[in-house]
Amino acid sequence: MSAYLDRLGALAPAARWPQARTWLYGEPLPFFAELRAEAPVYVTPELTLVTRHADCSAILRQHHIFGVDLYKPKQGDYWMAQDETPVHVREKAIMRAILDREQLPAMRKFIGEVAATRLKNAKGSLDIQHGLARAVALSLVTDWFGFEGADRQSLFEWSYWSQQDAFHNQPFDHRSDAAGVIEKRQKGSFMMALYLARLVAKKAIEVKTGGGGDKPVARLLRLKFSGGLAPEFDIKRLIFNVGGLLIGAVETTNHTVGNALDWLFRHPEALARARVAAQNPDARKFDGFVWEALRFNPAFPYFFRTVQRDTVLGGVTLPKGATVLAVTHSAMQDAAAFPHPETFDENRAFDDTFTFGQGIHECLGKAIGVALVAETVRQVLRVPGIAPAGDIEWRGGVPEHWTLKWAA
Hints:
With 408 residues, this protein is an alpha+beta fold. Helix content is 55%, strand content 9%.
């Protein structure tokens, strides 16, 4: 019996996506199971839902067919809103080069110390979203990435409204406050640009006089002044990319940390094993619990793309210009890619998951995100008896506040 598809079919075509969206968030796993089995490429007048792993992976990897056009009104000529253009290839390569992976062990140690200190100082009660997940990410941005002299509340708001507009304020979201979100993103982007221009000017002087330290902003400036970079990567492009370090770090960390902990706290058997693993000095023994929890409860249940030319996917013809959702939450429950997908297995390889995306638009800071998210969750579960005091408070599709308590 097609419980969901029959109900969708009985609706007026224009009402099908709004109803499907309700199930996508409210009853995801049974809804996805039916779509994968009976309509893996489900077309509505507004957009198309794609739910099998192979098809979702194809969408994200075939950027010449499925493009990121919907990012462009939000992010302008930032490379993330481009598909393998010279700008995309050049600037992503530059940013990867200055995010030194040899520093990851020290970075993870720093993350663990900041998280442990905030938990210790909280004395038995803490808003885990704003008081830990966002706070730890902001510490990384200010202390490790080099956002000196910035007001942390402003950094948070710049990151928050940028992500809200890009990922939660698309035409198919039908937000009643859409114009207000755009206005806040634009204001935040302007204020961030002013701050970054001053920061880069200050660092440029330091670098040219032999100082500046060894953080990403100084590294970028040294590369620029060396003459080894393409002239197209001017100071404006440099500032643009520095801003991306902030925007990509804070809200994604907040959401993934909240979702991973939410799933674990709702599943006592997995939680008990995770608590034991969190005590292991080898942090890598713990990390699988986070990625497996996010396979069941991802921060981003789908990625949106625009069809670049008429194409056939799963036997369905998709016309040029159509919006497609690669429903990766469903894809991560597909038995074709994950044997016994209903079983929580912290030892699974997470290479075929979509936590950090796939293809050319895979997260620039994936290696840092692995350390940042996993270590923050690990420090929470190292606290004896820590547990939710209530449910997560949501705002704009992301976790805003969530109090955890324990015996201090």
